[in-house]
Amino acid sequence: MPRARILIVDDSVVMRRWLTDALSRDPRLEVAGSAANGRIALMKIPLLRPDVVLLDIEMAGADVLGILAAILKAHPLLPVVMINVPTEQGAAATLDALAVGAKDYVTKPDISSSSDDALRNLRDELASKIMALCPNSAEKLSSDSLVLNPVGTSALNTIASRLAKRVDVVAIGASIGGPNALMDIIPQFPSDFPVPILIVQHIPPILSKLLAERLAARCKVRVAEGSLHQILLPGSAWIAPGNLHMTVERELKTVRIRTSQGPSENSCRPAVDVLFRSVAEVYGAHSLVVVMTGMGQDGLRGCQQIRAVGGQVLAQDEASSVVWGMPKAVVETGIADQILPLSELGPEIISRVMKHRLEQHAAVEL
């Protein structure tokens, strides 16, 4: 497999050198070149033909969002990964960049004070994301090679049985591409949405808080970061705080959120599997879970447990996913009730949640 070619755009000579040295140690990657500003980057892209651009979120005197927009206008299929800083301003700029069209982000380290392990972890994280975004990487799978489990009569009956059950909670898991996907789906839910919504997005603490705030400003349902002992209410959505697992537990008739800093799962905290497992335990067959765009297999084991208790599973399709890793893992096992493009996920979730309640209402009127 050819190595992934990278163009680094950063006004810091030290950072350009560090990234070049760190990424060049991975045999899957090749640093094709670097640029100190957007003008040089736009000149070099057609010459170097990179597979991925790394773009610093903060460059002195530069309109980085304008640079990003110019790159994407000239090269709409070229993935851009933002290198952000761990501040509220950096978090806001990162979400703005994702809205413009950047595919993902990593947090810039303080090279002078970061430990060798921290720098190595950043390099590994960046390398994994670059490979996931490259067309020829292992995370991508052609439709020709995807073999779905056949759905026979017994399987159809099982699906029909699950659809007939009332949905009492919606749980969503996402990673790369997730913030924009959530911005698409959650605003579709009406203010009187009759069940709570729980979301795990792989995201650091500052970004999770800001993402919740931005969703809250755009959505009819209430949106907030999940907090310890928060009671679940209909018409509300909670996003797992960065660096904390989020689960649910029942106390008599009340269901509350729990947050914890337990061990990472699938190299993630928060992890989708952790949330889905607790949802399966608390809500059983009345669970609806959704696995959206993202790298890796987080969510697969949780979906298996949801299916084991009779719950419903939806997966985002490959064409609308930024990275089809997490949904692909669910689809390949044959446990997804439906595989849908992003544009159809919101209406399908609403339909499944409302179906049983509308039927009950009609029966009462009769």
Low-pLDDT stretches: 138-157
What is the CATH domain class of the largest domain? Alpha Beta
CATH architecture of the largest domain: 3-Layer(aba) Sandwich
CATH third-level topology of the largest domain: Rossmann fold
H/E series, N to C? EHEHEHEHEHHEHEHEEEEHEHEHEH
The profile of the biggest β sheet is: 7 strands, parallel
- Percent range for β-strand residues: 15-25%
Q: Which structural class is indicated by helix and strand composition?
A: alpha/beta
Number of domains: 2
Strand arrangement in the largest pleated sheet: 8-9-7-6-12-13-14
Q: What is the 3D form? A: elongated
User: How many beta strands in the DSSP annotation?
Assistant: 14
* CATH homologous superfamily annotation of the largest domain: Methylesterase CheB, C-terminal domain
What is the averaged pLDDT score?
89
Euclidean distance between termini CA atoms: 64 Å
Verbal overview:
The chain has helices at 13-24, 38-48, 64-74, 88-100, 116-133, 153-163, 178-185, 205-218, 272-283, 300-308, 326-332, 342-365, and strands at residues 4-9, 29-35, 52-56, 80-84, 104-107, 169-174, 197-201, 222-225, 236-239, 245-251, 254-260, 287-291, 312-316, 338-340. The chain has 366 residues and is of the alpha/beta class. It has 2 domains: 4-133, Rossmann fold (3-Layer(aba) Sandwich); 143-365, Methylesterase CheB, C-terminal domain (Rossmann fold, 3-Layer(aba) Sandwich). The strands form 3 sheets. It has a 7-stranded parallel β-sheet, sandwiched between helices. Strands 2-1-3-4-5 form a 5-stranded parallel β-sheet, sandwiched between helices. The longest helix is centred in the last third of the chain and has 24 residues, at 342-365. 44% of the residues are buried. The model is unreliable at 138-157 (pLDDT under 50).
